[in-house]
Amino acid sequence: MKRVIIILTIFTVVILIIFYMVKSNDVLPNTAKEEQKETTIEDKKQPIDIPDVSLEDSDTITIDNTSDIQNEKITRSILDMPFLAQAPLANWDPLHEEACEEASILMINAYKNNKNISTKEGESAILELTKWEEDKGYGFSISLSELNEIAKQYFNLNSGRIVESPTIEMIKNEIINNKPVIIPAAGKLLSNPNFRNGGPNYHMLVIKGFDETNFITNDPGTRKGESYKYRYNALMNSIHDWDSDNILNGKSAYLVFD
């Protein structure tokens, strides 16, 4: 009986040893795998060197629409402003024959103050202004610099500036910026078919717009002068400020109010 017990005991011990060995073999590889996994995860957790990229260094593209708008060629622009003929009641007496300067500055003043001018109001305004000028010692023909002074004293328009040697693009730019332009001209060079006797020796008018080939004006020298069109070169060649000796010696310039 003792012998049987010993054999069973030995057998049991052997079974336990085998079971333990098998169990150990299953656990050890898994432990190694876990260590390997942990190592791999730790490797992945290593900090990545990400450069400090500012907005200027990034690949993001900012589209500047402003430059496209600025570079877009504007082919037509016209300002909404009232028209006043220098002889509103068609009375072409010597006073009204010389009233283009007064009519031009009256149109500018009305535009700046967002007002209209009726025919009767225009007539009264021209008579009052010419009387004031006479009292101040101004002659019938008024230069750009004199008109600028009149604008300051009579209309309180203090932002006038005279631009010499203008170009077509310079005048266009004033219009685009909502600033009508007064130009002095050798009237006969304008070749306006509505003028009497080929036009006045000296003239003034307002440029209020342009299109592909023309300046668009309010020309007070004719009742048909509202939005009257002059070819670019024809108008530019006619620009001469007042010169008492020879109008063709008058400087090329314009008057504009900021």
- The outline comes out as rod-shaped
Structural class: alpha+beta
β-strand number = 7
What is the terminal-to-terminal distance? 129 Å
Q: CATH superfamily assignment? A: Cysteine proteinases
Report the uncertain regions.
26-71
Can you count the helices?
8
- Strand percentage lies at 5-15%
Report the average pLDDT across residues: 83
Account of the protein in words:
- This protein has 258 residues and is α+β, with helices and mostly antiparallel strands.
- It has one domain (75-257): Cysteine proteinases (Cathepsin B, Chain A, Alpha-Beta Complex).
- It has eight helices and seven strands.
- The protein has helices at 2-44, 65-71, 94-97, 100-112, 119-136, 144-155, 168-176, 232-238; strands at residues 77-78, 160-164, 181-186, 202-210, 214-218, 226-231, 253-257.
- The protein is rod-shaped.
How would you summarize what this structure contains?
The protein is of the alpha+beta class. It has helices at 2-44, 65-71, 94-97, 100-112, 119-136, 144-155, 168-176, 232-238, and strands at residues 77-78, 160-164, 181-186, 202-210, 214-218, 226-231, 253-257. The chain has a single domain (75-257), classed as Cysteine proteinases (Cathepsin B, Chain A, Alpha-Beta Complex), CATH 3.90.70.10.
What's the arrangement of secondary structure elements?
Layout: H1 2-44, H2 65-71, E1 77-78, H3 94-97, H4 100-112, H5 119-136, H6 144-155, E2 160-164, H7 168-176, E3 181-186, E4 202-210, E5 214-218, E6 226-231, H8 232-238, E7 253-257
Antiparallel strand pairs: 1-4, 2-7, 3-4, 3-7, 4-5, 5-6
